Amino acid sequence: MELARRVLNMEESITFAAGAKAQALKASGRDILSLTLGEPDFVTPENIRQAAQAAILDGRSSFYTPAGGLPELKQAIARYFETFYGYSVKPNQIVAGTGAKFLLYTFFMTVLNEADEVIIPTPYWVSYADQVKLAAGEPVFVQTSEEEAFKVTVPQLEAARTSKTKVLLLNSPSNPTGMIYTPNELEAIGNWAVEHDILILADDIYGRLVYNGSQFTPISTISEKIKDQTIVINGLSKTYAMTGWRVGFAAGSEDIIAGMAKIISQTTSNLTAVSQYAAIEALTGPQDSIEIMRQSFEKRLNTIYPLLEQVPGFELIKPQGAFYLFPNVKKAMALKGYSDVTNFTNAVLEEAEVALVTGAGFGAPENVRLSYAAELSTLEEAVRRLKVFMEK
Ligand code: PMP
Ligand code: GLU
Asked: Which InterPro entries match (predicted)?
């Protein structure tokens, strides 16, 4: 039987594929160090796990919830916006769902008609383009440059704009580059979007994982007009070490949020109830473990960045947030005789036993991605192996 074209035409998530390959090699006995999946290596803080356990034991998690999430969860999310964004959102402007990833997809399904265009600054997180295509839209890639710290500019956006442009995707801090847009940059981009009536999809999932004094400004806080034009996507996976619970949320215009909740009501029905109780505790309970994890990522970044800089042929900009390093390995590829970054990544895996993610999946054919959400000792050993590999 032939599968549907939408599946035949899409790629498997390259981050998940790289993670699975590293896992399989490890299971076969190979000593692989995996810096693939962007996933905190910490278990979910205990207070959150206990709240989930209590919800299971007293039976609260046994039932469906409203499609967009429990009222108590929406209240907790509203408080999160008040605290970290400084504005209030009403419950009907909030939807919770099965991970930020599924909410992004739900958003595209809600707003895109066939051939509507979504501008995606490149390098981009692996899932955006395929999700847009699944929703029958057209991804329009705008190449950013390392000289501009991988940040898109208004002239670049203007050059990409057509009568079909419906959405601009903005991911700050960025996966994979770790770059953060400044308030001035956001103001210029936001005003451009407002002027041309282009929706801003702000993927703020790494907003609380920023380092060395860097500040994250959400684009939706720049002005009332820009806020009205923006849908914020966020989630608990990264900040709260909760990838397995699949908690994401979105906030913005009532119409779009209602559309997203409608899709949820016809697909997953609701975010798993036990995860909602865990999320309420995460958002409203003690926050000290969050800062401890953030500091630990910061320490890893500050340790590993200067070491990676010394690997022959690896050139990189110091990230400000998220938990990835994204070196340009053009020179490293040339030194080892590779012209294709995926082949280079495979050679690193085979010969150095370090699993990285090829930049190809991020629209960056000269880069590789390393996640530093791993033990310091693992990171140090991985970079040592990379250096040995490059010096051979
Ligand atoms: N956006 C970005 C930029 C990401 O890196 C991720 C990775 N998990 C997600 C969204 C999705 O996160 P989740 O589905 O775990 O909430
Ligand atoms: N977002 C993480 C990453 O980029 C987790 C995997 C995924 O969702 O793609 O590695």
From this structure: Aminotransferase_I/II_large, AspAT/PAT-like, NHTrfase_class1_PyrdxlP-BS, PyrdxlP-dep_Trfase, PyrdxlP-dep_Trfase_major, PyrdxlP-dep_Trfase_small
